[in-house]
Design brief:
Elements (H helix, E strand, L loop, with lengths): L1 H10 L22 E4 L2 E4 L5 H17 L6 E10 L7 E8 L6 E6 L2 E6 L4 H9 L9 E8 L19 H13 L2 E5 L2 H10 L3 E11 L13 H14 L6 E10 L7 E8 L6 E6 L2 E6 L4 H9 L9 E8 L19 H13 L2 E5 L2 H10 L3 E11 L10 H7 L2 H14 L15 E2 L6 E2 L3 H14 L1
Length: 460
């Protein structure tokens, strides 16, 4: 995004005042990077629909409060071409899912909601008219297929799992090409639907990195947990690793569990309490049980230390594709339910054994179970969702809380490696740590230690 911001400075012939420079105006946020160049905001959104959905909620709210009139949104990025070679541009006319449905489906308070994934036809025409015959690339337009999975969901055969043949893959790719699909990516469906729902003029412009009719590989990174699992499982297989154990450690919203406490997931469920991960492979729905290893859960619970300044709980984890509506938050850009509706839903899922919410466990549990890999999910709650939607704790406190899952998992690793009987002390992370800027050592500040201690005591 910084590179694009500098590019716009040149294109718009803008000059910064002497002694100033472009800077990330959201640099203190955990969410994304944001640059402002004249009337243009340039913002990163991460990979996948859950990630871009968070960004859209927050940017739409930002523009609303800034009283911005008639904004135009563009998603620019990369994709796999279907019958279009690498290096050429594609302007999306509409977005469809892996079954060619032209709508975005999300679960809000346990119920399915569908929103049309429409893009602005006039904006598509304007962009196509701006294509220059002298460009060293071609600019095409057509439907974009948006998937929740990079490997199986896009018909790739080089992931960790593949239950179809080369012939099956080619039949599918040719079929969707005949239906007008010219590329595949992982964000356009949510982007188009949320912009259309907010009545915002929007377009998707991507460059093809390869023609999928000619192969699967193009050297992409691993920003989503699905991509990561496919590639790490392949790596371990070729390295002949035997009996690996996978942990997902991170943050979540507690359901009846206060901030700072740990949660070990017993199983993962979706927004409708279904205990399976559903993905579309070659146009067909596939369901995989989202099971986690019960023995591993028991081992982790036994490693909880009564002297820890937090409690360690276990229970079901609800995994959603949307951070705001999907998790019953009322502070997003859209909300069609009441506080009473939200509380009824949260209390209902708590009664069903759900103790926290996050956005990765379903795919993690299902893919690990499918690969017969022992796995567990350990998260720290940042807040109790029965008490509100906003995380109010200071940044120093949140940073310390996020080390707590690491400590529990480290105890398991030490036990497996036979490194003494001593459990990792809650204060061990207060030892000197290397500075990012210098190689000297610095103690954690007294203010940070005091804040963490006070916050933990208040939750006890």
């Amino acid at each position: 995004m910084e590179q694009f911001a500098h590019f716009l400075m040149v294109e718009l012939d803008l000059k910064l005042p002497t002694g100033t420079m472009l800077s990330d105006i959201s640099q203190h946020s955990y969410r994304y990077s944001m640059y402002k160049v004249g009337p243009v905001l340039s913002i990163s959104h991460g990979m996948g629909m859950p990630s871009i959905s968070i960004l859209l909620h927050e940017v739409i709210k930002l523009l609303y409060h800034a009283k911005v009139v008639n904004p135009v949104f563009f998603r620019i990025g990369t994709c796999g071409g279907i019958g279009i070679d690498g290096g050429n541009l594609i302007v999306s006319t509409e977005a469809v899912d892996g079954e060619l449905n032209p709508f975005y489906e999300l679960t809000v308070l346990g119920k399915k909601v569908r929103r049309p994934a429409e893009l602005d036809a006039e904006l598509v025409d304007e962009l196509m008219e701006l294509a220059n015959p002298d460009d060293p690339w071609q600019t095409e337009c057509g439907k974009t297929m948006c998937t929740n999975d990079f490997y199986e969901g896009q018909g790739r055969m080089d992931g960790a799992f593949c239950k179809f043949t080369e012939e099956d893959k080619m039949d599918f790719l040719k079929m969707i090409r005949n239906e007008g699909v010219v590329n595949m990516e992982m964000e356009s469906l949510a982007f188009a639907a949320q912009c259309q729902y907010a009545k915002i003029k929007a377009a998707v412009v991507c460059v093809a990195l390869l023609n999928r009719l000619h192969g699967d590989q193009h050297g992409m990174g691993m920003p989503s947990i699905s991509i990561l699992l496919h590639e790490v499982i392949k790596l371990l297989y070729h390295a002949k690793v035997v009996n690996p154990v996978f942990f997902r450690i991170g943050t979540c919203g507690g359901i009846g569990i206060d901030g700072g406490n740990l949660i070990v997931s017993t199983e993962a469920v979706d927004g409708e309490l279904n205990p399976f991960y559903e993905l579309t492979v070659l146009g067909k729905k596939v369901r995989r049980p989202a099971e986690l290893d019960a023995e591993l859960v028991d081992e982790l619970m036994e490693l909880a230390n009564p002297d820890d300044p937090w409690q360690t709980e276990c229970g079901k984890t609800m995994c959603t594709n949307d951070f705001y509506e999907g998790q019953g938050r009322m502070d997003g850009a859209f909300c069609k339910f009441t506080e009473e509706d939200k509380m009824d839903f949260l209390k209902m899922i708590r009664n069903e054994g759900v103790v926290n919410m996050e956005m990765e466990s379903l795919a993690f549990a299902a893919q690990c179970q499918y690969a017969k890999i022992k796995a567990a999910v350990v998260c720290v709650a940042l807040l109790n969702r029965l008490h509100g939607d906003q995380v109010a704790s200071p940044k120093e406190v949140l940073e310390e809380w996020q080390t707590r899952p690491q400590k529990l998992v480290a105890r398991y690793i030490k036990k497996q490696l036979g490194i003494g009987d001593k459990l990792l002390s809650p204060l061990e992370t207060m030892t000197p740590v290397p500075s990012r800027e210098k190689f000297n050592h610095a103690m954690v500040s007294p203010r940070k230690l005091r804040l963490v201690t006070q916050e933990s005591m208040s939750y006890e």
